[in-house]
Amino acid sequence: MDALHTAGIRFAEALQSGPPWLEKFWISVTSLADPKSVFTICFPLAYFLNRKVGLSVLWIGLLSEWLNVVLKWFLFGERPFWWVHESGLASKEQVTLRQFPVSCETGPGSPSGHCMITGAALWPLVTSLTALASRYSRSPVVKLLPFSAYLLLQLAVGLSRVFILAHFPHQVIGGILAGAALGWRLESHPLTAHTPRFFVATSLVLLLSSLALHSLIRTAGIDIDW
């Protein structure tokens, strides 16, 4: 893992050595793609366009948020900003990295929540826009636009997380793949088939199970907030 982490640090160095104007771009991307935006921006917009799609964005965003936390409890994952000093790399080799106001994120880092939650929640919106494009246009370019935008957004979010030293590249890749897989799997289950009681019960199960799992991990002597 040390070799993988070191490679990630070198990649972050290469990103940070880019043109000065890119700094503001990466920081803007990582701020706009915060998981909270799924609930404050993406859900209202999707709901305005289509009620069913909006509810899917909200529900998948909730489930992916919960799953991301649970995965981090089991996978842990170092944060580049802290690892470069804790590993001793900064004292052994020359490391040229810059810190930003959003760099000092704490807690486990694998997989990237920004990539996973955003990728999963936007999946139903992307598939809906793709179906809409296919209905009104026969052009393959137009049909591929929604997914192309989705991929470019995920790439930009991932690079921004590496740029600010919040995640290593492999954590970003894991988040992107997990988000796409989760979005694809959940999007195939229509929410209209469920009653409000189902959503209330599921939410309570998620809450209680996470609290119970957290207690079990702490009882086992594992410090998940190391």
TrEMBL record:
<comment type="pathway">
    <text>Carbohydrate biosynthesis; gluconeogenesis.</text>
</comment>
<feature type="transmembrane region" description="Helical">
    <location>
        <begin position="111"/>
        <end position="132"/>
    </location>
</feature>
<keyword id="KW-0472">Membrane</keyword>
<feature type="transmembrane region" description="Helical">
    <location>
        <begin position="144"/>
        <end position="164"/>
    </location>
</feature>
<feature type="domain" description="Phosphatidic acid phosphatase type 2/haloperoxidase">
    <location>
        <begin position="53"/>
        <end position="187"/>
    </location>
</feature>
<dbReference type="GO" id="GO:0005789">
    <property type="term" value="C:endoplasmic reticulum membrane"/>
</dbReference>
<dbReference type="GO" id="GO:0006094">
    <property type="term" value="P:gluconeogenesis"/>
</dbReference>
<dbReference type="InterPro" id="IPR000326">
    <property type="entry name" value="PAP2/HPO"/>
</dbReference>
<protein>
    <recommendedName>
        <fullName>Glucose-6-phosphatase 3</fullName>
        <ecNumber>3.1.3.9</ecNumber>
    </recommendedName>
</protein>
<feature type="transmembrane region" description="Helical">
    <location>
        <begin position="198"/>
        <end position="217"/>
    </location>
</feature>
<keyword id="KW-0256">Endoplasmic reticulum</keyword>
<dbReference type="GO" id="GO:0004346">
    <property type="term" value="F:glucose-6-phosphatase activity"/>
</dbReference>
<comment type="similarity">
    <text>Belongs to the glucose-6-phosphatase family.</text>
</comment>
<keyword id="KW-0812">Transmembrane</keyword>
<dbReference type="InterPro" id="IPR036938">
    <property type="entry name" value="PAP2/HPO_sf"/>
</dbReference>
<dbReference type="Pfam" id="PF01569">
    <property type="entry name" value="PAP2"/>
</dbReference>
<keyword id="KW-1133">Transmembrane helix</keyword>
<dbReference type="GO" id="GO:0051156">
    <property type="term" value="P:glucose 6-phosphate metabolic process"/>
</dbReference>
<keyword id="KW-0378">Hydrolase</keyword>
<keyword id="KW-0312">Gluconeogenesis</keyword>
<feature type="transmembrane region" description="Helical">
    <location>
        <begin position="56"/>
        <end position="76"/>
    </location>
</feature>
